[in-house]
Amino acid sequence: MQQTRSVEIGTGLFVLLGMSALFFLTTQTTGGDNFSADDTYEVKAYFDNVGSLKARAPVAMSGVTIGRVTSVIFDPDRLQAEVTFEIDSQYGAIPDDSDASILTSGLLGSQYIGLQAGGSEDSLAEGSEIFFVQDAIVLENLIGKFLVNSGSGGSE
Amino acid sequence: MTKWGRDIYDNAVEFLRTFGAFQLFFLRLVRHSPRMLVRRPGLVIKQVYNTGALSLVIIMVCGFFVGGVLGLQGYSNLARFNAEDSVGTVVAMALIKELGPVITALLFAGRAGTALSSEIGLMKATDQLSAMEMMAVNPVRRVLVPRFLGGVIAMPLLVAIFTCIGLFGANVVTVDMLNVDVGAFWQQMQATVDPDDIREGIFKSIVFGIVASLLAVWEGYNAIPTAEGVGRATTRTVVITAIAVLILDFMITAVML
Lengths: 156, 257
Known about the structure:
The complex is a heterodimer of chains A (about 160) and B (about 260). Chain A has about 160 residues and is α/β, with parallel strands linked by helices. In chain A, about 30% of the residues lie in helices and about 30% in strands. Chain A has a domain at about 40-145. The model of chain A has no long low-confidence stretch (mean pLDDT about 80). Chain B is mainly α. Chain B has two domains: about 1-30; about 40-255, no CATH class. Chain B is built from nine helices and no strands. Chain B starts with a helix and ends with a helix. The mean pLDDT of chain B is about 90. Chains A and B meet through helix 1 of A and helix 2, helix 6, helix 7 and helix 8 of B.
């Protein structure tokens, strides 16, 4: 009897340890931008260039994650990329003339959407569109511009 | 020439037969599994203890040092690009997606797989399995299924423990010894590791758990009932499990990437 008891205790300990290891892995190694909210509203924005923005990328305001990109698709009518993202409903009072820009966390980090508050009285709601947008900065274009500028500067 | 041809033909047929018998054996175990899990959970728990809890020491020690060496290697290579802050990402990705499941499966084959096949082989050699049949007890259900299930349950948990301890080992080596910033270590890891990566690791661990325990039980059950036969079955368990796990790992990664 004593032996089965110690076997059972050992098994219990082992399973508990394994479960907590799994829990640790799923919560501690991922996340950071692991946004989840029960109640959200969806907002749209159109960009000429989204860079490498992907679904699930965070939407941040003042650096705090308040939402998540749900889809990035190409709109064939407008010939622009349509980015849909959801924002936690507790941040319901965001002015509807706020602007959205695609930013990069760190020099080579992943891209996210940064919102900058506007001054309007009305706030964003389900289905509204953000009109003031700023495209992703593409490093190649930047280098290209820099080379062209420095070239013309040298000839003068 | 004709003798050669016949040899190859015979071998091919024999291989197919073994392979087919193996599949049927697997189906047989799966068919009996739910019933054993409900009716005799005690037997399964005993095997979870034997294969899982008793493998904890080797898993934890190896996990710590694998994580540590990944941290060292990652650090010394990343330091060339002044990117030693990303060492957390490198270690976590390697451990969660590849090394965690694979090394745990290999260790599992060495620690638990051999124990399973030699135990079952010896039961067969000493006619314990035939004795059970004589008493109208189905040895597949009474002996093999709990051992198979124990391994299947224990494996994902062992992989999770291995990976966690590995991360902890990397943390000790890089943060405490090589002065990587602890915030950068964990934050860069959290920014890069996706829930999908963890899902891939868990999926692999489940597949490897099934394969490793299945092979161990199969080899034991089909051992030639002599001292030499049991020894050979034990060796084959390790060899075949290692090959199967590494090939499967490649295939799963290729499909999931």
